[in-house]
Amino acid sequence: MSTPEPDLSSKLRQSLRAQRRALSLHEQRQHSEALCQRLVRTRHYRNSRHIACYLANDGEIDPMPLIEHAWLMNKTVYLPVLSPLQNKLYFAPYYENSSMRLNRFNIPEPDCAPSQWKTARQLDLLLLPLVAFDAQGNRMGMGGGFYDRSLAYLRHRQYWHKPYLLGLAHELQKVEKLEVQSWDIPLNGIVTERQCY
Ligand SMILES: Nc1ncnc2c1ncn2[C@@H]1O[C@H](COP(=O)(O)OP(=O)(O)OP(=O)(O)O)[C@@H](O)[C@H]1O
Ligand SMILES: [Mg+2]
Fold first, then answer.
1. Which of 72, 75, 88, 132 would suit a FRET pair with 177, their CA atoms being 20 to 30 Å apart?
2. Residue 181 is part of which domain span?
3. Is residue 1 part of a domain?
4. Residue 136 is assigned to a structural domain of this protein
């Protein structure tokens, strides 16, 4: 009798999500501070005015110190919003006093008019959460394909295109090699609490 092939990538996704959720509050805070200190020194951050980020969820490394730094530097920070009509992300400006609403995945989004949303290509820098990455810049997300769909236009780029894509992660999310699908959009780099790739 044949047993179904175990889905290796969904096992990997589950295991890495559990590992990042298991980090203590202290470790989470240390990683977040170290990551943000490294990130603010990068040329890509310093040269960017329009920066999209995310609010940490499910043990993701927390970019909040970076968001606060960006506000101080008068950069515009954006958070992803799920378009209700397409399965794609837009990016809404996020300020200290933004009112928020929950999307269909219970993730908070800035509550502002769609006319204020930007598309990915209008951003200078996009900081993405991830579940796993490898040193070649391949990324595994939560499995929804939302970032991949929203960035699909980059697959056919002939020359440089915005935004610069940086994945943010705990070092423990690094794997030897990720299996890549045709729709996966690779990152320009990854920053962890320990180093830049
Ligand atoms: N450009 C695209 N067009 C249509 N469907 C897509 C596209 N990109 C991804 N998808 C769909 O999304 C599904 C999930 O993709 P994948 O497993 O790569 O998600 P992910 O990279 O983990 O998630 P995310 O991009 O949200 O972080 C795939 O099964 C694929 O069918
Ligand atoms: Mg993908």
1. 88
2. 8-191
3. no
4. yes
* Residue 181 beta carbon below 6 angstroms from any ligand 1 atom: yes
- Of the ligands numbered here, which is closest to the C-alpha atom of 155? 1
State the total domains in the chain: 1
Ligand 1 pocket test target in 130, 153, 183, 190 with most atoms within 8 Å of CB: 183
Contact 106, 79 (CB under 8 A): no
| 145 pocket-lining for ligand 1 (C-beta < 6 Å) | yes
CATH, residue 157: 3.40.50.10420
Could you tell me if residue 197 is inside a domain? Answer: no
Evaluate whether residue 3 is within a structural domain. no
Q: 99 C-alpha vs ligand 2 centroid, how far in Å?
A: 30
CA distance 138 to 28: 23
Q: Are 44 and 164 in contact (CB under 8 A)?
A: yes
Instruction: Give me 65's structure tokens.
Output: 């110190």
Task: Tell me how far apart the alpha carbons of residues 106 and 4 are, in angstroms, rounded to a whole number.
Answer: 33
Question: pLDDT by residue for the chain (197 residues), tens digit each?
Answer: 444 445 888 899 999 999 999 999 999 999 999 999 999 999 999 999 999 999 999 999 999 999 999 999 999 999 999 988 888 999 999 999 999 999 988 999 999 999 999 999 999 999 999 999 999 999 999 999 999 999 999 987 776 578 999 999 999 999 999 999 999 999 999 999 999 99
